[in-house]
Fold:
Amino acid sequence: MESPLVVGVDGSESSLQALDWATDEAAAHGVPLRLLQASLWEQYEGRRPQLTAGRPAEKVMAEHIVASCAERVRLRNPDVKVSGEVVPDDAVTALLREGRDALALVTGARGRGGLAGRLLGSVGLAVAARAACPVIVVRGGERNRTGAFGHVVLGVDDQNESAAAIRFAFAEAEARGTRLYAVRAWRCPVFESDDLAGDIAREHRERASMILSKTLNRAMPDGGEVPVRRQAVEGPAHRILLECSADADLLVVGAPRRNGGRGLQLGRVSHALLHHSACPVAVVPQTT
Structure:
């Protein structure tokens, strides 16, 4: 059975942007789209007086959100096979459970209860940190969300933490018919910045370039025709990637999952990108 792309919906503007993005993504990959609305109406039903003999208002609203979102998908792309479900659970638990059998999970940057602003909501952050599959948090301007720039950016970290992200980024670029820009950040330690700073900086840059090429060559698929630009750039990784996100359609990074590890497993770079990126961000888990 084909793994679906799963998107969390709650009727907010952010989730509708994620829904539109997920519709285009499902079409590009030729996979079904599954809509998930998490609602705790069953818990509330037993605590509130039932004023009518009908269904609880919270459940009716949740079902309406799913139905209207499914119609939005059909109007945007009739060829995408869409299904939806309301589950009586909190959003994080429901999405993590769905992620076990999903191609990827898609969320908006803010839910209905989120505060206005650029920072990522708690649901998206928790799901990105713990999901077993790639998680895409849809954020940024309309041009970034609709693929107007024609390239995917890949942040390349250590070899053991980037393989899954590299394969995911190549698949995304191929499905979209776009270029891939692979970046590795490097920095020259302060204590090495002396009279030989130029030579030392060159050594760091060459080492970063070597690691970038070696890591890409090990993980990139055979026979692919995706045009790739590779570059080692001096500076903090989060700053370099945030700058790259300004004119990117998607930013892809890896996130190590320690065997047996629990709780949030995101590094500083991933945190910064999820909160401040100018384009959608894909966090791809890599078991280490």
